[in-house]
Amino acid sequence: MKPAPFQYSAPKSLREALSILAEHGYDAKPLAGGQSLIPTMNFRLAQPGLLVDLNNIPDLSYVRLGSDGSLHIGAMTRHSTVERDPLVAQYAPLLHETMPHISHRQIRNRGTIGGSLAHADPAAELPAVAVALDAKMRLVSQKGERWVAASDFFVGLFATDLAVGELLVEVVIPPAPPHSGCAFEEVARRPGDYAMVGAAAVIVLNAAGQCDRAQLVFLSVGEYPTPAGQAVALLEGRRPTAELVAQAAETAASRDIDPVADIHASVAYRRHLAKVLAQRTLTRAFERAGATL
User: Fold this and answer.
1) How many CA atoms lie within 13 A of 147 on its CB side?
2) Across the beta sheet with 136-141, what order do the strands follow?
3) pLDDT of residue 1
4) From CA 30, how far away is CA 166, in angstroms rounded?
5) How remote is the C-alpha of 139 from its chain's centroid?
6) pTM above the 0.85 mark?
7) Contact in structure between 99 and 79 (CB atoms under 8 Å)
8) CB–CB of 263/234 below 8 Å?
9) Quick one: pLDDT at residue 206?
10) Which of 2, 187, 199, 223 lies at a CB distance of 3.0 to 4.6 Å from 277, suitable for a disulfide?
11) pLDDT digits over 108-117, tens only?
């Protein structure tokens, strides 16, 4: 399996990369870690005329804390770096918990957070986690920059809000409020495989111990990260109990998702997994926020 013929460019700065992308338009494709793009090129599912390699732009790789407590991660930061970074562990525990679930260590050594988000695979972990964390994406082109919420960034199957000539250059995760908890879990046939279903949960309690805000986002049950809006509506404004969590999990699995069958799982099995994972992640998130169920 070999890719179709293509040209190659390795800019040394973001400005140069943006200039090349603007010049070549649809024919150009950014290359980050290459862990998804190169296989699709080898199968000739993608046939860009020009690869724009971003690996020689060091300014796009970093993890740092903002003055407001938000976590800023450069798009070319490797998965393995995010996995081990102490700032991620302290200020974005959901992301820290999720990283070991991404493929295999060899893939995490090359793959990048921006590449995964821009690829927008519905079975990937990072898009769902970004939505659950209310992350923001900084998109840059020669025309300027704009910010897009993660919930608006993913628009379809392998499709994002990125315009021609734009690059995702930074992901910003807002600071977690007090009395918050989170959890991630997925089920795959083998370690490192794409998940048949995964779930990311974030819970914020108010001073009275009620659920002030909740997020429950599934992966691998639709064309893009799937928030469980009806399940969350059951939780918000109420004091959490095991029965309430079970009811929310049932609602999420039966009403919030519309999975399809494939060679790995039937629709019924995916709904079963979604219910189990929703109950597990919500329970852990509530307990980590300080609730007693």
Assistant:
1) 7
2) 63-65, 71-74, 167-173, 136-141, 144-149
3) 73
4) 10
5) 16
6) yes
7) yes
8) no
9) 97
10) 199
11) 999 999 999 9
The amino acid occupying position 234 is L
Of 79, 169, 191, 177, nearest to 134 (Cα)? 177
Residue count (the chain):
293
AA letter at 31: L
Rounded to 5 degrees, φ, ψ at 282 are -65, -40
Residue 243's identity, in one-letter code, is E
Place of tokens 């950014």: 30
Give yes or no for a contact between 215 and 251, defined as CB atoms under 8 angstroms apart.
Answer: no
Measured CA to CA in angstroms, residue 228 lies from 6, 51, 220, 250 at distances of 42, 37, 13, 11
Cβ neighbourhood burial of 27 (10 Å; 0-12, 13-18, 19+): middle
Which token pair is 75?
């798009």
Q: What is the 3-state secondary structure (H, E, C) of the chain?
A: CCCCCCEEECCCCHHHHHHHHHHHHHHEEEECCCCCHHHHHHCCCCCCCEEEECCCCHHHCCEEECCCCCEEEECCCEHHHHHHCHHHHHHCHHHHHHHHHCCCHHHHHHCEHHHHHHHCCCCCHHHHHHHHCCCEEEEEECCEEEEEEHHHHEEECCEECCCCCCEEEEEEECCCCCCEEEEEEEECCCCCCCCCEEEEEEEEECCCCCEEEEEEEEECCCCCCEECHHHHHHHCCCCCCHHHHHHHHHHHHHHHCCCCCCCCCCHHHHHHHHHHHHHHHHHHHHHHHCCCC
Give 237's pLDDT tier (boundaries 50, 70, 90). very high
Within the chain, what is the greatest distance between any pair of CA atoms?
63
Distance (Å) of CA 169 to CA 174, 205, 250: 17, 33, 38
